[in-house]
Amino acid sequence: EGDSVDGRELLRSCDIWHSFGRYERSAALWEKSCSLPETQVDANLRKAFFAKKNRDYASARASFSAILASLREDERKYRDEFTVFMILEELAKLEEHRFRAPERALEHVDAALAWLRGNRYFLGRSFTVMNRAMTHRRARLEKKARKPENAAKNKCLDAFDLAQDRAAEILREGGHAHDV
Q1: What is the structure's pLDDT at 173?
Q2: Total-model pTM
Q3: Helix (H, G, I), strand (E, B) or coil at 28
Q4: Which H/E stretch holds residue 170?
Q5: Per-residue pLDDT averaged across 41-45, rounded?
Q6: What is the model's pLDDT at position 61?
Q7: pLDDT-based confidence at 124, cuts 50/70/90?
Q8: CB 120 within 8 A of CB 93
Q9: How many CA atoms lie within 13 A of 88 on its CB side?
Q10: Helical pair 148-172 and 102-118, crossing angle rounded to 10 deg
């Protein structure tokens, strides 16, 4: 199973190992299937929800963002895949509730609303329900974003993200943790 080059077969193996409670094994195989084009989105999605379930919110955000970046490369996929809406909603929830960054959450909500508007005729009645929920989330986030303490907090979060990116870059270049 680990030597398979068929992405779907590998993904099924991941799911089987996960159902048996062998999370380390399934995580390793998800990682491998993330590199295969035919399963990149599905594998990252499973990895993201597993990370979120285990309260590894930074990994979940990274996996969701990787999926979104992958889907954005193909405009038709980005436009037509319902997965886009689901990912944007999950990213908004993470940013709002786990990272306490209402401005970032608002960006994801705006992107989700734009995606909904572009797909309103295909969604039928579901559009109304999802649009109402996302519009309500947007109104709540706007209130949170206007609070002065959130503006200062977001500046700190941006600086922290820059520091994390720099640390990851140093480690990728072969540096050590004490170089960070």
Answers
A1: 77
A2: 0.78
A3: helix
A4: helix 148-172
A5: 92
A6: 96
A7: confident
A8: no
A9: 24
A10: 90
Please give the share of the chain, as a percent, with pLDDT higher than 70.
84
* CA Rg value for the chain: 18
Tokens 């609303």 belong to: 113
Residue at 105: amino acid letter: A
Q: Is residue 98 predicted with pLDDT exceeding 60?
A: yes
Using a 10 angstrom Cβ sphere, with 0-12 exposed, 13-18 middle and 19 or more buried, the burial of residue 97 is exposed
Question: Given this model, what pLDDT does residue 81 score?
Answer: 87
Query: Is 53 exposed, middle or buried (CB count within 10 Å of its CB: 0-12, 13-18, 19+)?
Result: exposed
- Provide mean pLDDT across the span 161-167: 70
Task: Give the integer Cα–Cα distance in Å for 86 and 127.
Answer: 13
Q: How far apart are CA 91 and CA 105, in angstroms?
A: 7
Instruction: Return the closest-CA partner of residue 62 out of 34, 26, 85.
Output: 34
Dihedral sign of CA atoms 49, 50, 55, 60 in order: negative
First to last CA, the chain: 38
The first and second tokens of residue 130, run together, are 């999802």
Pairwise CA distance, residues 119 & 113, whole Å = 10
- 8-state DSSP, 97: I
The confidence score (pLDDT) of residue 79 equals 85
